[in-house]
Each structure stands twice: as structure tokens, then as C-alpha cells.
Design a protein that fits this description.
With 166 residues, the protein is mostly helical. The protein has one domain. The chain is 50% helix and 2% strand. The protein has a two-stranded parallel ribbon with strand order 1-2. It is globular, with a radius of gyration of 18 Å.
Length: 166
């Protein structure tokens, strides 16, 4: 989830109890981060922020945690965790937008694995949710981060150039 609330880089479909670490590894995320962040040593270092399931991977930071049992985090570390947890919730907001716009994604009501193409419904609805965000020019997440989404034309060009290059 980017700060302009574009849900990107959806990779594959997974059934059963697939852990975040396994999905992250199979997506090629670390290789992409090496390409983006690992080239120039003097350039500013950027990171993705995720939960502990993705740590310790190149280019990904997670919440502070105590390295020794019983030793509490410092006030600064606690404050940083609190601040960043409010940013992490934006990913859940994105999933919520997708489910609210497209009721078929509410698995309890509509989609049944083995009886309908759940993965295809979700991928298409994610694309349509991104279109909606681009056309509207904002949503709750882009408002929180004060970051406007791309125009629909810019977004379509970006996804078509990715699909033609890969």
C-alpha cells in the first residue's frame, strides 16, 4: 500500500495457511528492494515499514522490540512504535475499501473457494478500487498522508509499462 492509497504489486494467489514471510519471499519483494534501494551507497536510504513477519529482510523495517526478555523499550522506541502503528493501519483501510466497494470480496457472504474464482475477483476488484481512487483524486489514506494519487492515465501507463517489461 503506497501513501497515495494505490494497492500495488499483488502477487499470486495462495490457499490455506500461507504465512506472510513465505508470500513475501515468493513475490520477489526483496529483489525489487535491492534494485530500488541497494544500488547507490551515497544515496539516502529508504525503507518499507511492515510487521515483524517481514523482518529481517533487506529494505524492510518493523516495530522496535526488546532484544532481552524483561527489558522494556525506551520511551523513544515506544513512541516510534505507536506512531508507525497508525501508518500500518492504512493497509487494512485499503483492504476495507476493496471489500466495501466490491461485496463479492466479503468471503462470508459471497465468495467460496473451489466454487468461484476468488483470486480473480480480488485482483480485478483491486484494480477497480485503484481506478476509483485515481478518478476521485483522494480517499482516507491519501488524506492521512497528504499524498494525492496519480491520475487515471498515469496509473494505467504505470501498470501497462510494468506488464510489458516483465
Amino acid at each position: 500500500m503506497t501513501p497515495d492509497e494505490i494497492m500495488s504489486s499483488l502477487h499470486g494467489t495462495y490457499t490455506g495457511p500461507s504465512g506472510d514471510w513465505m508470500i513475501g519471499n515468493s513475490s520477489g519483494l526483496v529483489e525489487i528492494l535491492h534494485q530500488l534501494f541497494g544500488r547507490e551507497r551515497e544515496a539516502p536510504r529508504y525503507y518499507l515499514y511492515g510487521d515483524l513477519a517481514y523482518w529481517p529482510a533487506f529494505g524492510i523495517l518493523g516495530p522496535y522490540r526488546s532484544l532481552k526478555p524483561g527489558v522494556p523499550l525506551s520511551q523513544t522506541e515506544e513512541a516510534a512504535n505507536l506512531l508507525m502503528s497508525s501508518a500500518r493501519i492504512s493497509v487494512k483501510w485499503g483492504f476495507g475499501l476493496n471489500v466495501n466497494f466490491w461485496g463479492i470480496n466479503n468471503y462470508k457472504k459471497g465468495s467460496k473457494i473451489m466454487f468461484s474464482p476468488v483470486d480473480e475477483y480480488y485482483l480485478v476488484s483491486t484494480l477497480l478500487t485503484n481506478f476509483h481512487t485515481c478518478l476521485k483524486g483522494r480517499n482516507i489514506i491519501s488524506d492521512k498522508f497528504n499524498c494525492s494519487p496519480p491520475s487515471l492515465n498515469e496509473y494505467v501507463q504505470s501498470i501497462t509499462s510494468k506488464s510489458s517489461s516483465g
